[in-house]
Amino acid sequence: MSLKIQSNFNDEGNQWEIKAIGDVDISTAPKLRDCLDAALQDKKANIVLHLEELNYIDSTGLGVIIGTMGKMKEYENQIMLVNPKENIKKLLNITSLDRILCPKI
Fold first, then answer.
1. Structural domains in the chain?
2. What is this structure's pTM?
């Protein structure tokens, strides 16, 4: 399984725009964690994590997102997940993470 991540800072929206492409599992979750941590170290701002091209995420990947959310609360920022595919939307719903992380679902 592979994961590609595109990350850029949106000056106009004053937020990170990060796109996850592929799969987040135990072998690729560290890559996502590193990207999210690097973004926060560079600029303390909200993160919008685009999931339209994410095919799969397991509990390790969800743990990375929850860990990032915890770090961001210290700075009164938030992480938002947008455009998840149906299978990921279902997982977020089962875990009730959709209520916390997905304001637009």
1. 3-101 (3.30.750.24)
2. 0.92
